[in-house]
Amino acid sequence: MNVTVRAEELGDDLRRLREAAGLSLERAGELIDASATKMSRLENGLREGSTEDVAALLAIYGCVGPLRTELLKLAHEVDRRGWWQRTKPTFDERVRTLLNLERKADLIVNYECANVPGLLQLPDYTRALMIECEMVPTDEVEQRMATRMRSHSVLDQPKPLRLLALIDEWVLRRLIGSSAIMAAQLDKLAESAERSNINIRVIPNRGAHAGLNGAFWLLKRDSGHKVVYLENLTSSLFLEEPDEIETYETAIRHLARRALPAEESVRKITELARRWETGELA
Q: What is the Cα–Cα distance from 185 to 123, expressed in whole angstroms?
């Protein structure tokens, strides 16, 4: 049975609530007359258990108010693929689903046309990006930056995920922060490209291509589970329908064909880093 983003979100939240309540998997199961195996499957997004089971667990965990309402809605909708996530009020809540998917992914393909891929950003670049866009409240910048930086750990796990970063060349030429920040950020990209699990490809500034409609992430597991993630200023969109996934996989093939080879991409990044460093691109 294939998992869905909704089912995994529900399972992750139930696990978090159980641990906060100080209950073991076995004890929580006993309280609703369920085996530890059933509880494990529920928390791993395998859609085990009924809405009534979820309601009983929420009562045991002391979960009330809007969160209870949200989780019961998820329990009703766990079989639905695709999720336009619009009800998360804070930044941490909005990105939590993505961070959970990143931790479980074996491969991420991230195409970016406006800024450096988040998993490869330096703190100074991320901070400047948030400040200069003028859409992030000043008192939230450091917290958001810390959340972004924590996500980088997925590249350093015992079994690190593989990252294919497809970057429009304009990203490397857009001044964010200062020339010094840009030089350091591009040096970081070149250094990251030396890692065996990171492949960075630059799409040169020559004509239109399949990524002009905007950035996207494809998160894939070795099991075959795939999700495409899109974001805007107020909501997140998770695509799971096979035909939608195929459209983005086709775009990835087109972008990879247009991109410079890996070694040539690194040379381009290094060349532009030196031009930022000397002030030529300022």
A: 9
